[in-house]
Amino acid sequence: MHLRLDVDVQKLETEKLRKGKNKAEEDLKKIREEKIKADRWERKFQEA
Fold it and tell me: Which segments does the entry list as coiled coil (predicted)?
């Protein structure tokens, strides 16, 4: 009985960590996209 509960808890924790990792990866992608945009604007500004 205790082992079954431990397994269930570990599964829930793993899923929670997986979701957190996915969210972090999405956020990182958005940050990279914004940095690329900022770099483009900076180059345009320097060219002017």
Answer: 14-44
